[in-house]
């Protein structure tokens, strides 16, 4: 609705006269409360998930002597992009629709050293009762036509609130360092050309993605070799 739109677009600098006008309508005020709560809930969901992953990381470090996670990044979608996405999807701009239909408000990128580590992490996430798997897109097994690779998993994590338990969604992107290197640079080039990338550049980018993939494979084989050396040494 119109009021929803106004509220959402001015979340950060809403003036009080508007608030007063809105508060004459109890229903709208309730919606307003929900709008205000939204970024807080997603921020908390990210924190909860990050803590779970930190714990896994610490355990792996203890058992293996090193962590398979290179780094973790998180980000929150800003209200404007949320609204734009709803409009693009042809949905009413309500908080309920955001909770229900937008899966990438909270995003987490986990960058691992090796491809194997990504699936190891994913298998672990699947087994946990405090994480629900909502959707999986395996662009590692099935890379996009431009060569993009990553494992995308939409999960939900429970937040215990006064009102009860609430499952909040987070989009996790898992990649290797090589995949992350490629995706980060491709993103920059893509935006420089304002999404109209000349064909030869598209081609070169896809070739570069293949090179990144080969690098991953090479490093994985080197690791396997080193690990088997290890085994042959220990009695
Ligand atoms: P969105 O509406 O953009 O979220 O698309 P989608 O719902 O089809 O999701 P998908 O899982 O395909 O991609 C989501 C996210 O993955 C994007 O927002 C990017 O962060 C990343 N991504 C997907 N494709 C590419 C790509 O070709 N290049 C780069 N650099 N990133 C990509
Ligand atoms: Mg997205």
From TrEMBL:
Gene3D superfamilies: Beta Polymerase, domain 2 (3.30.460.10), Nucleotidyltransferase (1.10.287.860). It comes from the Bacteria. Transmembrane segments: none annotated. SMART domains: RelA_SpoT. Pathway: Purine metabolism; ppGpp biosynthesis; ppGpp from GTP: step 1/2. SUPFAM superfamilies: Nucleotidyltransferase. Residues 74-197 form the RelA/SpoT domain. Signal peptide: none annotated. PANTHER family: GTP PYROPHOSPHOKINASE YJBM, GTP PYROPHOSPHOKINASE YWAC. This is GTP pyrophosphokinase family protein. It comes from Paenibacillus nicotianae.
């Amino acid at each position: 609705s119109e009021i929803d739109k106004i509220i959402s677009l001015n979340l950060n600098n809403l003036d009080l006269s508007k608030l007063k006008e809105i508060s004459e309508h109890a229903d709208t005020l309730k919606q307003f409360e929900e709008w205000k709560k939204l970024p807080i809930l997603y921020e908390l969901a990210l924190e909860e998930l990050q803590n779970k992953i930190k714990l896994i990381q610490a355990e792996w470090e203890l058992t293996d002597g090193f962590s398979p996670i290179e780094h973790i990044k998180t980000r929150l979608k800003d209200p404007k992009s949320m609204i734009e996405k709803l409009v693009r999807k042809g949905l009413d701009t309500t908080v309920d629709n955001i909770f229900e239909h937008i899966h990438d408000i909270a995003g987490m990128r986990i960058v691992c050293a090796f491809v194997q580590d990504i699936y190891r992490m994913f298998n672990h996430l699947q087994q946990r009762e405090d994480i629900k798997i909502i959707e999986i897109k395996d662009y590692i097994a099935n890379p996009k036509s431009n060569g993009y690779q990553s494992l995308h998993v939409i999960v939900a994590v429970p937040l215990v609130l006064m009102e009860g338990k609430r499952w909040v969604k987070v989009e996790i992107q898992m990649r290797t360092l090589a995949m992350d290197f490629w995706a980060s640079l491709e993103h920059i080039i893509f935006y420089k050309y304002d999404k109209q990338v000349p064909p030869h550049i598209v081609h070169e980018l896809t070739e570069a993605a293949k090179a990144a993939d080969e690098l991953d494979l090479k490093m994985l084989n080197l690791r396997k070799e080193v690990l088997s050396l290890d085994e042959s040494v220990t009695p």
